[in-house]
Amino acid sequence: MRTLVLASTSPYRLQLMRQLELNFHVAAPLYKEKMDASVSAELLVKHQALQKAKSIATKYDDALIVGSDQVFVDARHRVLGKPGTAEKAIEQLMEMQGRKHTFYTGLAIYDSASGDSLMEFDTFTISMRKLTEEQIKHYVTKENPVDCAGSFKIEGLGIALMDQMAGNDYTSLIGMPLILLVNMLSRFDVEVL
Q: In CATH terms, is domain 3-186 a member of 3.30.70.260?
């Protein structure tokens, strides 16, 4: 099997990749994410996922490099990324409650030998419950979701914030859509099973 590389420092994506029981390397992407509100969420996450994968291609001359990126679009149609601080996470969650929001997760595979690439994206929609500011502050203090788009960790206590969730693949909400990844890998003749 070809060398497989995950271009990510995300512990969430690392855990998801391990779920597929494939042998792979992990490398920090050299590309820095750029939020551009003038670009659609679909194009933004696909572009950034590919740039992350391509940014480490010189380190691997014959590898399939996987990149992923995620943003969420709030009810006001603003494209938002990670909050970065607890204060911003609280502010985001206060604005999000009682509304419907969509997460866009881009996925790219770059073949460093041929230069071929595939890019796709998946969406997942959530609706947050109405909560008190005290509940939101308690959540942020407990899980510290400052490194997560949307300011919550659905695989943890963040599930308690939700009223409804809808999508094809819940792993896209965590940061990397595994169903899509399995299908994309098969196009490079990598079969998970």
A: no
pTM: 0.89
Tokens of 55: 């940014």
Q: Which residues contact 135 (CB under 8 A, 6 or more apart)?
A: none
Residue closest to 143 by CA, chosen among 154, 128, 132, 133: 154
Q: Check the CA dihedral 143-51-172-90 and report its sign.
A: positive
Sign of CA dihedral 146, 150, 155, 156: positive
Residue 105 is predicted with a pLDDT of 95
Residues labelled as active-site residues: 69
In contact, 13 and 148? CB cutoff 8 Å: no
C-alpha torsion sign, points 153, 65, 50, 193:
negative
- 182 confidence band (pLDDT: 50, 70, 90): very high
